[in-house]
Design brief:
243 residues, Rossmann fold, alpha/beta, 9 strands, globular, seven-stranded mixed β-sheet, UbiE/COQ5_MeTrFase_CS, two-stranded antiparallel sheet
């Protein structure tokens, strides 16, 4: 039987998922940041601030921000003096980030179109690897984690911010209703695209649980792994070290 992977609630071929995820982010790129505010009530900004505090970027460090598209994480790390390479498989997302950087007068960031599963960078060149709300859209997560491990220096750190499943009683049910019923309608109203946001919600439901994803990070070779749930696990910060 040929391999299949999840695209939301569908099982499709790896090639089909890669193509369809690319279409999703091409469709939503222009409204991506506005939709993040609308869907999370602005909470995504606080999650990203917390994430970068955990990364602790230092002046002069070389950091790869994968799936960094519109620059939200990179801008925060650049303020700390880190040398950040922003990578994304989707050029439209990168174009939005480049435009935002120009508006801010930032010319220190490096922008590079990359597939997380097959990075073109040499081994052991980055002090940190970050990926925020992007790992669940990768076709083969294990390959992306292996590449993250490869490009990190010994002593380098991996940090991932991703949606998960909240364990708070009551809130879980309310969030399920909100995400499945209302988010696609918000997407239709603001971005003119309900289907892309329906996929993004479904992709969260198909993503591994926090313990299972932590095990995947360990299987990629990382040690001292840690999971920090936010809002009962609605969002989680995963981390590990390469030694």
């Amino acid at each position: 039987m040929s391999e299949s992977v999840s695209f939301g609630y569908e099982d499709v071929s790896p090639e089909e998922k890669t193509r369809r995820v690319g279409d999703v982010f091409s469709n939503v790129a222009a409204k991506y940041d506005i939709m993040n505010d609308a869907m999370s009530g602005g909470m995504h900004r606080l999650w990203k601030d917390r994430f970068v505090r955990r990364v602790k970027p230092q002046p002069g460090e070389q950091i790869l921000d994968m799936a960094g598209g519109t620059g939200d994480i990179a801008f925060r790390m650049e303020e700390c003096g880190a040398n950040v390479t922003v990578s994304d498989i989707n050029q439209e997302m990168l174009d939005v980030g480049i435009e935002r950087a120009m508006d801010r007068g930032l010319d220190s960031l490096v922008w590079s179109r990359q597939n997380a599963e097959e990075l073109s960078f040499s081994s052991r060149i980055f002090d940190a690897y970050t990926i925020a709300f992007g790992i669940r859209n990768v076709t083969h997560i294990d390959k992306a984690l292996a590449e993250a491990h490869r490009v990190l220096k010994f002593g380098g750190r991996f940090f991932c911010l991703e949606f998960s499943t909240t364990e708070w009683p009551g809130f879980k049910e309310a969030y399920d209703f909100y995400s499945h019923k209302l988010v696609p309608q918000i997407g239709k109203t603001i971005a003119g695209d309900a289907d892309s946001y329906r996929y993004l919600i479904e992709s969260i439901r198909r993503f591994p649980t926090m313990p299972d994803f932590e095990q995947m990070i360990r299987d990629a070779g990382f040690v001292r792994t840690k999971v920090e749930p936010i809002m009962g696990g609605l969002v989680a910060i995963h981390s590990g070290w390469k030694i």
